[in-house]
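User: Here's a protein and a ligand (guanine). What would the complex look like?
Assistant: Let me lay out the input and then the predicted complex.
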Amino acid sequence: MGKIIDGKAVSAAARARMKEEVAALRERGIIPGLAVVIVGDDPASRVYVNNKKKACAELGMYSEEYALPGTTTEEELLALVARLNVKPDIHGILVQLPLPRQIDEKKIIEAIDPNKDVDAFHPQNVGRIMIGDYRFLPCTPAGIMELIASTGEDISGKECVVIGRSNIVGKPMAMLMLHKNATVTICHSRTRDLAQVARRADILIVAIGKAKFVGPEMVKPGAMVIDVGMDRDENGKLCGDVDFAGVEPKAGWITPVPGGVGPMTITMLMRNTITAAGG
Ligand code: GUN
């Protein structure tokens, strides 16, 4: 039976340590500040943004929210980013994605000062991740690394299969695992016989955004299964990309949804903001 990796507990422990780091920075007169920008009224984005603000307050950090209407132009958003880039009490800038159609996400990401890019989405920071010279860690993959570390299992030499190749999760995840000396395979929608490839994995990381996509036939007995999905099942209930009930008896370790990867992502965003402030 799979042992549960408790994202809430790992996240709480990390936040307790970070709270002390923030307190030490405050003694030096530095209050880590995060600006969160949200454009439009996507309900999921609203929930994420509220959680980010709450996390800042909990750790003794400063945050500002900029909620812009869905009709905001690219020029207007670029002007806001330019202002935040030079605002001295703001160390980290997060522009919540996705953005409305009239705005080119790539242009906005490239306009953010790489030293304030706490999402690690700017090409300069992406490049640093590629060569293993991290300033900011990509939040979701970094959170997953902490979850794996919490199990005490070694990564070196293991077969790791990542399902999903997004710039936010799949690609940087593969790099972090590679830097820990895993043998890494990235699967995607065109992969032939995905189940067969997935069954090779000692560590299976699933980030494709399809509810309960991974069943027990795709999992090697005893494997560690990390579920990045945030989906809705046929009854509208929150679930992951992994069929938890089916896979859990076969897995060695498994993350639940909710309560697995999710809580770690914001914690890593806070870590990056503390780093940006000089912590
Ligand atoms: N939308 C969904 N996840 C993320 C994230 O990690 N960062 C930003 N900026 N937007 C997101």
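Summary: The pocket of guanine is lined by residues 94-97, 119, 139, 168 (CB under 6 Å).
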